């Protein structure tokens, strides 16, 4: 199997976004590749943050039937351009 630079870069960027949130979050946990059940089937957020309260209720169920608090951070790599996207969360888009 041949791996592309874009895939490797995508994983690196997922980590960097997660590390940035982790550094500033206080409590709770970062979840990479977080699966969430939606009306359109299971979707996977690149990076999610779940509060301690959320984890007490849902632990690490797969997929979650409710999304964690920061739940739809996507890392979009288009060629050499990179965009951080935050949708449906309390964070503003990071571009």
List keywords for this structure.
37% strand, alpha+beta, four-stranded antiparallel β-sheet, 95 residues, disordered C terminus, 28% helix, 4 strands
Could you characterize the architecture of this molecule?
With 95 residues, the chain is an alpha+beta fold. It has one domain (5-86). Helix content is 28%, strand content 37%. It contains 2 helices and 4 strands. A 4-stranded antiparallel beta sheet has the order 1-2-3-4. Strand 1 and strand 2 form a beta hairpin. The chain starts with a helix and ends in a 9-residue tail after the last strand. Residues 85-95 have low confidence and may be disordered.
